[in-house]
Model the fold of this input.
Amino acid sequence: MSVSLLSNIQYPADLRKLAPDQLPILAKELRDFVINIVATKEGHLGASLGVIELTIALHYVFNTPNDILVWDVGHQAYPHKILTGRKDIFHTNRQLDGISGFPKRSESQYDTFGVGHSSTSISATLGMAIASKLKGDTKKQHIAVIGDASIASGMAFEGLNHAGVTDTNMLVILNDNAIGIDPSVGALKEYLTKAKVGIRPRKNNIIEALNFDYFGPIDGHDLPSLIKTLEELKTIEGPKLLHIITTKGKGLKQAEENQVQYHAPGKFDASTGDLIPKDSNGLPPKFQDVFGHTILELARANKKIVGITPAMPTGSSLKYMMQEMPDRAFDVGIAEQHAVTLAAGMATQGLVAFCTIYSTFLQRAYDQVIHDVALQNLPIIFCIDRAGIVGADGATHHGVFDIAYLNCIPNIIIAAPKDEIELRNLLYTASLGLDNPIAIRYPRGRGHIIDWQKPFQSLKIGKGEILKKGTDLAVISTGTIAHNVTFALEDIDTTISHYHFGFIKPLDTNLLKQVLQQYKTIITIEDGVIKGGFGSSIVDFANQYHFKNKIITLGVPDQFIHQGTVDELHDIAGISIKGILKTIRQYL
Done:
């Protein structure tokens, strides 16, 4: 049996020893390697399969890591990782103490810029190119690889706009496959579609209008063509853009045909590509599906309701409303700032705007939340998906900062339901009309209640509740972490009180005063950062009214939490069932 080419490659220097006619063989081996690992370990599949040939060509033509290569987002970086010294540990991808699912500077010198969110590659690469110029290094190449969904983002255009007036040695590779996590949207997508079929009027070329030399489009799976073109581009000075056409999921039939599902498909049969079904019978729904079905139900009854998402219709489940009411549900592409201000504009005209956005993506629109929403006190309903620890995606995706970064903003209401029914009722209550904007945070994945589709009930804003009455100490939790507390208290012999504060802001001050008066020791628990978080608000309130209680705050410590399962990472943060038990027993 012949030895595979891939088995002899640890780094790009090994790759460059191959003859050009060996590269298609390597591409097949690399594609099979990715498929076999992701089939059992899970991860981002389709994007990585789509750039196999491009990755080989880039490391073959350019002298990485001296030549700088930046991948946008990082969903497509698996082949890059395998060819840059991490092949033998790639099976640890996205696992606790394993390698990250995204490029990470501390992991490898070939990972020149840490990524996880989109549209940063052009700005970062431009910064590196300017640095090389200032150092007098005119030979170094700087390459940014960005997708057609990511390049439509405002930040990408800011980078293009600046790069176009520099004479830096910079190449932007536009990897055009007409899809991000969901299909690409917007006018730029339509423009690129015309370019694919050969309509390329020079006078109207948007890239050349930004002072870039435009090349392409070319087939991104044609290795000889890629290598020939990249070799030519190495000799051309100034900012330039190469437009390549690829197929997301290339080489796996099901991934090509079902690109949304196979973006991150979970476990599947590597030989057939068939998904390994998960038995969801009898399981509670995912929180995003509760949101998706509830907003659709509310929108059927209220014609003023609109839904907005920045490129996450499937992940957020706004897709249900988009399918039934396409004129009232909007995917605005990877444009979080636009999504928030668009919602604000709608609210000024009396629409009830639900802006569903991942916790870490909302960070990108922080100024808009403050300036365009809270300052004007517009009643936007922020539905903050993926709040808390999310697991294998790691530090770039954990939604642990939203309580802290929203808590300091005047006018805004912050709610964290403990279960699906409370989420449903919060959405209903918000839809009836509020005097303030509201942020409703909920986690990724399934909850605990199967029979969640009960009649709506209006909730009183700022009202907490007692879940369990005891005498020895009190635990105050917010959000779905309440279930970890409930399970922990089942293993405690003595009596502990458990309070749920579904509203972080405003706090239920009457209930909180009662708790502070009755218990000397209080433990607060949240699935966000401790600094500036929910527990911090409890401590501030106690200090304001001169209470002398011992208050212990549990939550995410002042450090970035990396990848692992949710349970593993909860354990690291001390908010797992085991961690909560340990703290309670320590203070009994």
The first strand starts at residue 68 and ends at 71. The chain has 24 helices and 17 strands. The chain has a mean pLDDT of 94. The longest helix spans residues 23-41.
